[in-house]
């Protein structure tokens, strides 16, 4: 191969990609051949590793090469079989540049939301360095384009999705290459340098905070402002407020619960507790929030009492559903009617008055729910404030999260001044396996006495029909790690399901399958919930 040192000031990654593409087209690199390593390419071209990475990303997007984990990049096409391609010369046209920005808008906004959940500490450090690079360039009145590219690269990597990573690098490389050719744009960006740095810092801070909604909104605003700075007004139809709320309402009607719960074949111990259920009242009296993810079927307290009687349950914990937002009236009504048999978990605003919290406590509220899967009006940025508010009452934070989306779950949540309760075994798809980092961090939280985990929601995370055999390894791993911190819940009436409604008797049978030992069953169903929710000891205890 004949690789030559590069001339400047052309876009270096474009030149690297161009030379490698010519080697492939000329047959010097054939299909199946491995490219030289990053170190070899940086030495051959006299460029940084980042430039080489961007060039390889471009070749991947154009269908010439693919990465094989732990092995490097390999040629997969000789130029006839190509994927997505952008002609750099076309981007001198503002109409074409607008279309590229529209594509970047949708991709980078999504990547920012993913990054807020998945970022590692090393990736956060790279984002911080990119902001520092932008800040230094602004102070020296240098071009911001290298720093902008560094930030896009760090954000794409933090998404934890190599397809986003490669494609965003490919798009960003083309975009910043095009902007570098437009002198008026360079002058305008120089005048707006402080604003651009502030916008990027806002995105970084949202990702550090771990708030996907905040990260998406900040990225949305930055890219729309970028379009404005280029004179491309009205990107995506002037829809500047689209990211100002939690999103458009799509609230399909759920299936009703199975009206005939079947009896279980084992002896349910006295005092057994269902640690997670919901009740929905008449919509005229208890209106649903317009920002919701589903519309529940009717589910009354009388209907749930039938489930309790059939299954042999003595106690229950009613949980505020996302469709009521912070309007807890329905839940508090259940506590008034249910008396000592019931406890509650509410959704509150961080500014809820102290007297209101005290009144809830006297009715039996013992926790606050943070719902990060369905629209609830509560965001991850509220976690620390809420923890501080409820700690004096001895309440816990109940988290509805997908633990596979959090690479630093223990670091983020393990230092809060309250106990955690994690819904539905971490709500992680079973295909990730029990060794998934987020699942293992959840186990560590429970093992170290920082969290409780509910054996519930098997029908939500399974890829199979009942009895959800693929869930069993997860349930058993939880029980092996923290039997003193494990709870059971029906999740009646199984909100959000549009098909395959489970039978509640069948769900209680599962916990017996996972933990057949009578002493362990008693811990899960009686002793553990009694400690966590403050139920009175049984008469014979």
TrEMBL record:
Residues 10-78 form the HTH gntR-type domain. It comes from the Bacteria. The keyword Chaperone does not apply. The keyword Manganese does not apply. It holds the Pfam family GntR. Transmembrane segments: none annotated. One of its GO terms (molecular function) is hydrolase activity. This is GntR family transcriptional regulator. Keywords: DNA-binding, Transcription, Transcription regulation. SMART domains: FCD, HTH_GNTR.
